UniProtKB/TrEMBL annotation, chains A, B:
Organism: Raphanus sativus
Protein name: Phosphoserine aminotransferase
One Pfam family named in its UniProt record: Aminotran_5
Any GO BP annotation: L-serine biosynthetic process
Functional pathway: Amino-acid biosynthesis; L-serine biosynthesis; L-serine from 3-phospho-D-glycerate: step 2/3
Keyword Transferase: yes
GO CC annotations on file: chloroplast stroma
Enzyme class: transferase
EC numbers on record: 2.6.1.52
Length: 422, 422
């Protein structure tokens, strides 16, 4: 395309042709009709590869408190944007690469290696990059770990996700709810001697962080069955803090909260647990198939895995998960403090000792103000603060990628809102 | 970041700061030291969001003959790149959007609507955007369409994928291979009266295009059972030509050949077939769950669905699937002609009447030259021409996004290579 016909300069932003130029733009006029010279220069032009309407990186970003898919680190997005059309001189997008080609293999191998460094994953654990979300794992776990439908498994249910995991397991084994927080509206985690485990349970399942209710395990129970294992759904606090992987048989997580886009599910599984899937297990739910094929049995979600890799790289650059946890603790503290110091104007129902560093649910003493709160926050570009439809109120999800400044702005808004409605 | 410090103009390309500018660039000097004026103007600057090393759309792209993930339309990639950091002024990337928010809902609804237009999908069919690839569907189909493990189903096996579908079905129903091309190395499609169907089969399954062997159905068999349905895996020729959807009970396809990146599986299913999943079916493999929730039961692969939507939009803009088919026929013809007119120097084993418009496998009469052919083609930026490890030789996958010029360049190279080795 002829550069001179499709390009121009406005202010200090690269403009794409079909973008409607502001007629009053000084620099636009400045460049097409320079007032300071009699000899008309060649029109200055920029060729932009894109022929679509956009202004790269110019529009203000919102402060995104979504529970997932959620905010991603800006530098990761910008890196992905810069590489999207042509990944590191390969001549193609990551989305166009054969999953068996050397380019993508380098991407998935680095992603696994960086994740192993982040979580100090022992060598007797496999890392799998799968599809289908945690919901698919709800079936994969009993199908791979229970030899028959009569095998017992224990579930601690601290919220909606633990409950969903239990219900799906009923199809494939003999699961028991050994503790449920439902009667207390999922605001607690039990003391580990506060529930009775089945000494024959193949595994003890927990949801390490309940996204909807904002309840997070700060420590982990030990299976009563010496041959049993602890399994954790870490979808919403994965890579938000260091974890002793050796305490678990399986850790699984959907990527779309802390480490990437939706469409990637990460499974960290102790190798001796692999290879025992029941015959009825769909091949895509058999850990052995994916382990033997290094997650490449069929075409994996390549671009999503690439994005996770960029995030892992960024987390390591930040100083690893100890530093990430410090940042998350600081963000959560100023938000919970603002709630607790509001004299009851804002309220968080969750027991203090198990409040999530990731998902902060809160309500207003005067519930009739909640709609106004959410609407006014949105005006200040703070979005996705509405609580889950099943619990109402508000919820601020403040995952790894939420900057401290975003939480500070929310807290300032809360205080100002309270002052106006005191 | 201060625009003046991180931005400049080189030639007619938008440069990102850390890219090393060509010191001789005229227009760069032109802008910083305009020769045509005595009064020094403010330095013209472009702010680019990215702080990484790249030149958007400048590096040469390869001609990508990969079988999938495969080439995507350049304008689609550029559109995605331009929107990646901030989708249409929403203040967030598509990867950061809540899948239940109005922004993503508009994306998935337009994608479905455009796909319905492209394929003229009747209103009594549902369109589902799922995960797990065609391989997951190999299990979903018998689990949803067969009431018991004894229910019969017929499979026509014209290549590796049809065979994989049959093998997975053995776990969940009583499938029969009613015809197999294995003994003839998968180079044929049977005449439809050339095999015996089970009159009680719940469905007749075909793989409409075998990616590895380059065998494509040009017409479709009718199930002998009046209550049975035809099911087609269209992963590698989906949206490459018009299809009469009403002839099928289910059409399914991984997106990563013709319509998007890997990680999205599209299922088009007649509504009366939904709601009959066996109790043992994992919830994520139950069509009813996804249909009732408009593919939003759990978090879908949002960015992949967005990319598919951009491709559907592009296919409509090209004039729809009739026009797309014309282009694909023209591309395939010049490549097959080059093979057939090479006097046996190049050979395609597939029976002419069923040669794929998408995947063109070929060998060299002198097999010892194949390595050299592939290496020299790569030097001319034609990549991924190696045949599948299971069949050897070469394979050129020329999906919708492969431009005619790419095939013309390959054909010119083939003739030049033959001349040198005659």
């Amino acid at each position: 395309m002829a550069a001179s016909t499709n390009s121009f300069l406005v202010g200090n932003q690269t403009q794409i042709p079909s973008f409607k130029p502001k007629p009053t733009s000084q620099s636009f006029l400045h460049l097409t009709k320079p007032p300071f010279t009699s000899t008309r220069p060649k029109p200055v032009s920029i060729r932009c590869a894109s022929t679509t309407t956009t202004t790269i990186g110019s529009d203000p970003r919102v402060i995104n408190f979504a529970a997932g898919p959620a905010a991603l680190p800006e530098n990761v997005l910008l890196k992905a944007q810069s590489e999207l059309y042509n990944w590191r001189g390969s001549g193609m997008s990551v989305m166009e690469m054969s999953h068996r080609g050397k380019e993508f293999l380098s991407i998935i191998q680095k992603a696994e290696s960086d994740l192993r460094n982040l979580l100090a994953i022992p060598s007797d654990y496999s890392v799998l990059f799968l599809q289908g979300g945690a919901t698919t794992q709800f079936a994969s776990l009993p199908l791979n770990l229970c030899a028959s439908s009569s095998d017992p498994a224990d579930y601690v249910v601290t919220g909606s996700w633990g409950d969903k995991a239990f219900k799906e397991a009923q199809k494939y084994c003999n699961p028991s709810v050994v503790w449920s927080g439902k009667s207390e509206k999922y605001t607690k985690v039990p003391s580990f001697d506060g529930f009775e485990q089945n000494p024959h349970a193949k595994y003890l399942h927990i949801c390490a962080n309940e996204t909807i209710h904002g309840v997070e395990f700060k420590d982990y129970p030990v299976p009563k069955n010496p041959n049993g294992v602890l399994i954790a759904d870490m979808s919403s606090n994965f890579c938000s803090k260091p974890v002793d992987v050796s305490k678990f048989g399986v850790i699984y997580a959907g990527a779309q909260k802390n480490v990437g886009p939706s469409g990637v599910t990460i499974v960290i599984i102790r190798k001796d647990l692999i290879g025992k899937a029941r015959e009825v297990t769909p091949v895509m739910l058999d850990y052995k198939i994916h382990d033997e094929n290094s997650s490449l049995y069929n075409t994996p979600p390549c671009f999503g895995i690439y994005m996770c890799g960029l995030v892992f790289d960024d987390l390591l650059a930040q100083g690893g998960l100890e530093e990430v946890e410090r940042k998350n603790q600081r963000k959560a503290k100023i938000l919970y403090d603002a709630i607790d110091e509001s004299g009851g104007f804002f309220r968080c129902p969750v027991e203090k000792s198990v409040r999530s560093l990731m998902n902060v649910p809160f309500t207003l003493e005067r519930a009739e103000l909640e709609g106004e709160f959410i609407k006014e926050a949105a005006k200040e570009k703070m979005v996705q603060l509405k609580g889950h439809r099943s619990v109402g109120g508000m919820r601020a999800s403040i995952y790894n990628a939420m900057p401290l400044a975003g939480v500070e702005k929310l807290v300032a808004f809360m205080k100002e809102f309270q002052a106006r409605h005191a």
